[in-house]
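From the shared-data thread, chain only:
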Amino acid sequence: MRGLIQRVAHASVTVEGECVGRIEQGLLLLLGVERDDTREQADKLLHKVLNYRLFADADDKMNLNVGEVAGGVLVVSQFTLAADTRKGLRPGFSSAAAPALAEQLYDYFVQQLQAQHAVVATGIFAANMQVSLTNDGPVTFLLEAR
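Structure, as tokens:
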């Protein structure tokens, strides 16, 4: 399971012209599910997302996590994160989870996140989404749970 997190001043996701998820300061998480992923890996990634220290403290050091700054988390499913890009000029998706498994793990991840964090917004799984954000920094990290 892969999560691309971006520290944002604000972010939103729109589907068919309607805003379906929005946060102010916090994290935009693009979530990619691979075929061998499990709930255990989802839990590990969730722990990393919630505890990763990428917000500035009083000394302007990245020492605070999203909860410590009362930030939101916007989760957007993104199967392209599971692509194999090592060879050629076209991504391969054989490592991506089948849609049914990916949706099940995405839903599980979001449910666990909602149980542990106050401000959570989401996109719509497998929808054609337009994501808008103001990356703060920019600060972007690829997190993996394997």
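The helical segments are 39-51, 99-116.
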